[in-house]
């Protein structure tokens, strides 16, 4: 959140701009600064959908040999840069700086000619230290994360491979479903990417303080409005509404990877227990996966395999499994030794559907546009191993493919402290039409620095009455 | 309405042994009447503390001792409305608990007493769990708690130390030094404030700094006359006397070289002869850092202690080190006789100039006597003045005060082994002869560089080149003619700086506008020999129609800055000058300035809803640009008033080279304009046909690069070598 002073100077009609670049070592200690030599128009990008969320670009005038691209100098592989943009407060003359993030120096290039001597560097956020772009290739032959490993624990262990110890890593509702194997030449990020894909509503990124985040993508639901018309009216220059009809889908169906089941039985009901008999199974072991069909839908179902004792059949969140009322559906479950229960994984081919059922949405399936359907399977979708996950993924796809297309691009006088995934409220001026106050979620920000520089913000419309689909509790 | 997600604010690392406040904000949604804080271990997200509090305040305080130092935690909040509806979890904020770090100044002298104008402050940081430091700011305040100087953000040196050098301590002043540090996890620590008292021996230069405004050539000429001439003595300790004059009440300062040695006391009849004083009397001498020219005036004031012994010795050689062979020595003695043809006893001075050949053969080259005075005694206060102009000598014995000797039981002021004005029956006075004066040309033996005083209590000594000066009875101050001067006020320094050569590191020349104290060092010289103290520099970076003051400042070992000796001059420039440290040019007829533009980058952005645009400007950029046109007439034209074609060509080529180089230059003119600038285009040089192509017209564009009185600008543009 911006400080009050940062907010105030963003509303000033007279802006005197400053830029300060701190040099940090890998312990985040400030070891020097590059103030006073920045030239040209630095640019900043902040894109919520990019692996490397933040980037920047600078040009410097080298003032001494410490700017040589060499070991021991200011510009070298062992430095981070932290960029601050400042606006002078008109009354007090105090420069109010905004932290624009911590970056790795990438691809410095120097132009030296009879009339030019500039050093240009690209700044890429710290994710680059794990993607292999600047570092992150794994040591050794292969890395394996075992099935059933806690995702949070796996992520913390993984980022520590890259030397990061500051993080916010939330709990994932699921454990690692299948063994993750990264072959020779893989990167830390390859592991993280697979861990991230276990549950689609999560994101990972580095914040402006260099802290790694793995947490839920803010949906906008019950979020605080970070920027309102109080500020927009002072800075908004123009806007463009973009709607891509081609990509609009309001009916999503997701199929996961079909399970390869070695053990199968037809359940015989006894009270609320499904009795299964599989001769090849000699004992209950952890992660034992079995398939079955059930004659009826039972409430609070139990499974008793080979008379080893009745065990609860539970959803991933610990609630009793709810089967379809269809004798032809082929179900899969897995024994979890730690808890002594069967985890209900849904159909043999995980399947989930989502539709835009909000009558207020312009993409309402029962509205004038009708259903526009897309079926998603294969590729990344093969990571989906439970129907509940498939449903979550379908909801998330709906979120992306339907609502996000109701988006706008605005150009404004730069608000340097703005961040992606913030909920904002804005009344778009519309002299000939209706002026509505709507809420949007910021998806990307492009900022340039300079006297004529502006900021371009891409935002998606947020419908407050939607079920956002990001809360596992409602699946 | 519903409950919106609270936003937990960042938490800096803190000491778990103390209470800590956690804050969050809520804007919109239902009124929050209750909130819950949840703190978890980062390692496994297990909850270590949770507390629900009914309050409208958007914060909670975690009690001391709840958490553990050295552990990484995270925190989030939930809020509740009057219906007890719970909000979603806030964002999660990670934080560390660390034992309170210590930050302290590590090199404050005992009692906080700073003995120099400069001090290098160092802060030491330690933290039990090894949390790293991000930056340090050291601020210096005066005794009224007004900020004098801030270090800004300090960064660690290669030894991971944080230093801040302050260079402008005012003597006999009090200060407070404060330090604030921020750790990499945001903890802010303050070092304990330290009260400082600054007391240091302030070296003073007595030199004149001669400043001359050369308006037709566009520079001020500065000449330094710093002389270090450290005296030496065989006394240990040196016997300084401080006597309050009963008449004036002033303190009079002396050196006592009159105490007879033991051997003298035991055998007062020893006849002191030339050359004997080296080991047997107290004496002081000067043998470096000055030179006595062929024409000079030597003056000293003393109470002599004996007759017939050498009081004063002047030589062209260090007699102690080099001996007498191949030397020329002046010796002045106090003598007593009945002058030739008279009947009463008188005292007078005798001057001898002896040349000793390389083989040790002595030749008298000079013999002079002074005026006669009534017999003196060891209480007599006399001034000896020895003036030499060519081969003409004037030796003057001037009695300032007499006190008659009394020899009576209990009231005697006769001193053992000192001469008296009383007549002794057993020591008949010599009847004088008709002295034959000798004054051969001895100029080949000059300059003299050895001066010695002995056999008296001396008030001052002075050697000057100014032979028109009347006889001094008081110690005069230094001027440009002075060669040696010592007042014996607790020192035997004969130069014009009250410090020893080995203590002196640098001499700086600084300048400022008359009413300003924002000094800029324009010249700095490392001092290794006394000759380094004599220099001449030219300064051209200042506007016309101002008064500029210059200071010559000694810098002692340890970067101790001495007192400023200040001289000033009114500045006038007759013409337009373009100069840097390599070149200086004067533009003559037809000088024109193009339109000078004050450049300030600004942009306008027009918001849709705003009535007025937003003006955006980049930092502090603001500079002048323009064009200059004029005529070059050659380097020597100002002196010769003759146009020399070769000289003009050379000057034109040099001018073009300077403009085309990346070197900055300074433009000054009659009107008071002064620009530190660089040429940003191609200089245009054309030979003027009307003058037979003998003179050159030039024009060029320039861009301002700094201000003449801004030391950083001057340094960045290579006009000065140091920023204090």
Textual characterization of the structure:
The complex is a heterodimer of chains A (475) and B (724). Chain A has helices spanning 4-10, 128-131, 151-161, 188-196, 229-235, 387-401; strands at 14-24, 30-33, 38-47, 54-60, 80-88, 95-113, 116-125, 143-145, 167-169, 180-182, 202-206, 212-216, 225-227, 236-242, 251-255, 264-266, 268-270, 273-276, 289-293, 302-305, 310-314, 330-336, 341-347, 351-355, 373-376, 407-412, 423-427, 437-448, 455-462. Chain A is mainly beta and 475 residues long. In chain B, strands 40, 41, 42, 43, 46, 47, 48, 49 and 50 form a 9-stranded antiparallel sheet that branches. With 724 residues, chain B is mainly beta. In chain B, strand 17 (209-214) and strand 18 (219-224) form a beta hairpin. Chains A and B meet through strand 1, strand 2, helix 3, helix 5 and strand 14 of A and strand 11, strand 44 and strand 45 of B. Strand 1 (14-24) of chain A pairs parallel with strand 45 (614-618) of chain B, so a sheet runs across the interface.
Name the overall outline of chain B: flat
Largest sheet entry of chain A:
13 strands, mixed
Task: Calculate Rg of chain B over CA atoms.
Answer: 39 Å
Report the average pLDDT across residues of chain A: 82
How many strands appear in the DSSP assignment of chain B? 50
Q: Pairing-aware structural class of the strands and helices of chain A?
A: mainly beta
Indicate the proportion of strand residues of chain A. Answer: 35-45%
**What is the tally of helical segments of chain B?**
6
The helix content of chain A is: 10-25%
Provide the gyration radius of chain A in Å: 27 Å
